[in-house]
Design goal:
Length: 126
Amino acid sequence: MPKVNAIGWFDIYVNDMNRAVTFYENVLQLKLEPIGDPTGETQMMSFSTDMSVYGAGGALVKSNYARPGAGGTLVYFSVEDCAKEESRIVTSGGKVVRPKFSIGDFGWVTLCEDTEGNLFGLSSMK
């Protein structure tokens, strides 16, 4: 079996799909794609439907900016330079919780809140 990262998929829950899609498309400068739910119970917009690209990195983290429990999982989006995406957060309706900061040899991160109240991160090597 080939080596893969521990996380294979994530869901970010929203109240207003159009508002959330607009936010993430503006901040990340990418186009979300609709995907069907076989149960017909949910509406879904995917960051990518390329299932040949498998997995995502992850870690257990203790932080003053996030707490365990309901809503305690934090998704980090890999970007070229998190300062670029950070600059689009507020104008897209979100909040910058902690501006770009160094995490040493692992690069840089920004902690943000989307239009739905979800905490997420941006991660880059520069």
